[in-house]
């Protein structure tokens, strides 16, 4: 499926975009089938924004709602208490030609895997996202690169539809915003983010309990796995023009040896990125034969989204990823080459 690159100066949804999205929902017939999808290996924002909005559609009176994501229908342990999980359907059992398709937190159609064809078979599609690298796939675009999470866009659309927040919707959106801001630690944490969190907490949700479940709970096998993988970490202080690169990798054998699912590796980047000697951090996670899911982070000097886009992925200036091929060393060599070619420093770009 061909995709056009996003305009470099795209500033977010226009009133025409909002009007089109509102009409897509409000004009649904009574028997309409609405399919919500998010990206492969869903994180807290993907699941939280999708399920929160799905619950909002239920409150609006939409009777036929399915939510899904590509790949095995396994919800990561930190998100297994999210409201709305009963709406999840395995990707091979969802409607082929829904009346409305709503896509959450995917920067490109390739992130939808086997579900990307629904963009062609759905009567109408709306894309909700906050990645600056979004490729403008699908029909109506509600893409706000300034939003801290896709849930910010989802909450705004529900508000425009006149759907009030309740505790279940709020918990989904809170998990989404908390995970994408690193529990309100990242640069995306603006006054507006805290104002949204206040609205969500006011519904009666318990942020302490949610945070313990999402951030501070993992199997002991994952703790042992982290220790092993972190022992492999390497520091290259000369990379990125002397700003430094720290990286490690985890294999499918590692997961099998410790009896863990792939989702436990998603938080590993936080243990690597704390190395003060490197602006860029990277975790290379095996997903297949010579195939690796790569997570990248920046402390601020390097725009890792430029590197990820150049290597076929996408993301944000401080957090991005792509799929690499070859050995872990070959994948990291490709990153080094892009870092050297790009310079990727905001100060250098005027």
The unreliable regions are 1-9, 344-350
Proportion in helices: 25-40%
- Trace the largest sheet across and list its strands: 6-7-8-9-11-10
CATH superfamily of the largest domain: inorganic pyrophosphatase (n-terminal core)
The fraction of residues assigned to DSSP E strands is 15-25%
Q: Supply the helix-strand structural class.
A: alpha/beta
Characterize the largest beta sheet: strand count, sense, and whether it forms a barrel. 6 strands, mixed
Report the CATH C-level class of the largest domain: Alpha Beta
Q: Characterize the overall form.
A: globular
Question: If classified by CATH, what would the architecture of the largest domain be?
Answer: Alpha-Beta Complex
The radius of gyration over CA amounts to 20 Å
Topology, element by element:
Layout: H1 15-26, E1 33-38, H2 44-60, E2 64-68, E3 100-104, H3 118-121, E4 124-129, E5 140-143, H4 150-160, H5 167-180, H6 191-201, H7 207-215, H8 220-230, E6 234-236, H9 239-242, E7 245-250, H10 252-258, H11 268-272, E8 280-288, E9 291-298, H12 304-310, E10 314-315, E11 319-325, H13 328-342
Parallel strand pairs: 1-2, 1-3, 3-4, 4-5, 7-8
Antiparallel strand pairs: 6-7, 8-9, 9-11, 10-11
